[in-house]
Amino acid sequence: MASATATQGGRGAMSSLLFYVFLFFFVLVSMFPLIWIFKMSIITKGELFQSPPTILPANPTGAEYTQILSDPAFQKALLNSAIISGVTTVVCLFFGSIAAYAIARLRFRFKSSVMTLILAISFFPAVAIIAPLFVQYSAFGIIDTYWAAIVSDVVFALPLTVWLLVAFFRELPKDLEEAAKVDGATTIQAFRKVIVPLAAPGVFTTAILTFIFAWNEFLFATTFLFTPATQPVTVVIPNFASQYTVDYGAQAAAAVVVTVPLVILVLIFQRRIVSGLTAGAVKG
Amino acid sequence: MTQSRREGGVLGGRKMSRRDFLRVGGAGLAGATLLGAAGCGGGGSQASGNVVFAMGVDTSGTLQGLVDKFNKQNKGSFQVTYREMPADSGQYFDQLRTELQAGASEIDVIGGDVIWPPQFAANGWILDVSDRFPESERQQFLPAPIDSLIYDGAIYGVPWFTDAGMLYYRTDLLEKAGFSEPPATWEEMKEMALKTAQDTGTKNGFVFQGSNYEGGTVNGLEYIWTHGGDVLSGDQVIIDSPESVAGLETERSMVAEGVAPEAVSTYKEQETDPAFLGGTSVFARNWPYMYALASDPETSRIKPDQIGVAPLPAGEGGQSFSGLGGWDMMINANSQKQDQAWEFVKFMTGEEGQTQRALAATLLPTRKALYQDPKILNEVPVIRLGKEAIQSTKARPVSPYYSDMSLKMAEQFNLSLKGDVEPAQAVKTLQQELTNILEQAG
Amino acid sequence: MTTATTEKKRRGGVLREEFRNPERRTAYYMVLPALLIILIVAFFPILQSINLSLRQATIIQAGPFVGLENYKEMLENPDFLEGLTNTLIFTVASVALEFFIGLGIALAINRAFRGRGLVRAAVLVPWAFPTVISAVMWRLMFQDQVGIINYVANSTGLVSEPILSDRTLLLIGVILVDVWKTTPFMALLLLAGLQTIPGDVYEAARVDGANVWQRFFRITLPLLKPTILVALLFRTLDAYRVFDLFWALSNRELESLSTFVYEGVRISQLQFAQGNAASVFIFVTAFLIAIFFIKVLGMQTSTEE
Fold first, then answer.
1. Which terminus in chain C has less CB density within 10 A, N or C?
2. Cα-Cα-Cα-Cα dihedral of B266, B267, B271, B273, to 10°?
3. Predicted model pTM
């Protein structure tokens, strides 16, 4: 989609400037809390509790980062988070895309019932069924293993996965394949060169959202996972505390450590979304 | 026709993408199973047959040390695993309740907050240890913590360590303003706070915990108790009394008269610490742990020798009481290892276990004898300084329905503190709500 | 198959008709795994919760059947009503704000400009931020002594009291934090939807002489409709069930429907049955909201292509 401003003269410069100002403002608002929390992670405990708060750190120190990064429990927690989120995403994408594909492209009755049923289960407040779930998982012996968290996350992430993929698959015009075939492409080529790239934004978006959902999930993780061997970061970080005190510095540092890789991951995947788009839109 | 051909075409195209999906998906699932299998390795405590001891986060490291010591002494017979529970006491409670409710908990020994025993006992979740813990043994412990473990005539655990609300004050600031003794009544305290804050240019006169949570309930109760009021007398709710109203009015006056900052209605312990240790407050009501924090130059701008500790002031004609806090040892009623669990409980609550925790983590012991121990008195100044406060502790209402009662009390105390509700009205509402709770309970 | 013949078949006939068709059979097999996972895991616990809500349930026993009495008590419970009000205000305000701002961001980022990738990543930061810490950190920023937001708000005269102690300010604060956190989610969804629209459609329209607004309303919006509706539906349902923000940031000051459930089911001894009733209430009303989106707003779930 070409920029509309490119074709307009003086007015284009003005709206271009406004556009960049608008963008700058949004980036600032999005990033500000992270910047503030980063500041919290590099100042001393004494300065943390200074009233009124200081704007620039007086004596920046990397002590918190050294402390948490060398903590084996935290390292394991990062790995646990990655595994739980990764497996949840893969499982959701696999079963979800199969189901979404059938719903979006094939014909059968009871479509809306199926969609609604998948969606409805996730309405139920998880906290109300946590005790029965505990009993169930105990019976299957998966308490305190990754599977307890993965299964729970999948159940609550599947609805969004299915619905999103259905919406994306449906957005793909049926005629596109027909047009490609008329142009001489075989079915396989039509699929690879036309459908897959166009579906990619949807699939990658869904993957990112599911991953982040599982990454941030707290209730199931804290209820079903007991030891540092299985606990993800969402459980470990609030425990940088004792009964009456909270180690804000460590939690802030942990927050930064946990968020930045996620953002980088997203950055990488978003490139693929862009490339998918340009591949599909170029006239074959 | 075109219809069927399109369908065929559609189907043809679809078959390809389906296979593609399945290919990718199959690979993904295989990978997932591999990773998941790796996950099955996690979770050892259930299978190992150890006695599982649950307790919140221990930043001092002494807990694991004690557990290791016990394990060394008991090598060959049985071992204990320390399972770390959430640092936040409320969250720890919620987790425990879910596990006990599900009836599938692996936990054998519970290190529990002093307000939990009646609630768990009423549901049959913890073990009655009356036979193992006879009267003669109980005498060796402080009376108030023992009372917190008694439900329906039986005792359900052993006191481990205790906590008491105390009045902290800045000795240097008070001296500058011409005061040499801590206040004995709330009125005195308010006067001293205002004058000292003004004379020394200190921002706040007094800080305490007034937020809507368990600590807020404790603070509110302390005001009520020190004015002669109470919540329960046997099974009767007696909170509706002029004494209780006087107590809440005193609490409200702290903010109304400018002694405490308005935001104190949002304070928990985490906010009280920086206010007092940062040097911006003359007085503070807090638990003993804050004294230890004062020795850490990273956390505190003031030094221990600038701090005094006293029992809480009393209302006019009342008596000083401090809120009882602390932790007890309980045994899961469903545990298959009750005898072994009891051995561990005896070890942790024994003189040696309590002494170590007192010295290393500045936690107040529950054995009377240890309060005569010169080493402890020397190395844990807050015990010496806070002796009076520790001896005048009062337990929160002992009831299986304490959680419900606390939710209501915390709310009303907070509303009264903020001035949204008149203390007299708050008390009346509580009388009604608490009576309802006990009636509902049957 | 005409409607007449469809109506003539009895239910058994319809099902048999479905399964005999190989394409349809395959479709059912493809849908089955997802359905099975959800049903096996969640079905019985949900049933149990519903059962408990109809009884005089306590934590340790189900108790005698009392019909809808728990629901009646729940609807008369002032805490519940407060939770309901707060939740409704929160849902409407945050979803509306998130949608419009998100759409704006998506449209803006969809154009080609320098540094687009970086902007996209930056905008996603709030969503990637772990919720558990987010609420705690925000509370710290709102706090009266060391909180930067409270400090700025009070210095500039925007507010005259500590933010955390006033319920209205708290609610506004919570809405703003949620908008900060979740707008990226909306923006990302809408952006992906925008990018699925092929460029040639716009080319054709521009050739036909359509201006920016016409292109937006006649092409973009209709093609984006399925994505918009999914995004709105899920955001609305998520906002309706808000818990973490209310619980951790406002520290139990603000009640929401979900905090009411949490208190009833996990903390209180006596409100256990009401807590379960509230869960079912959330379940049923969320269902109705979904139906509203599907039927009234025309979300497509069962149309054939």
1. N
2. 160
3. 0.86
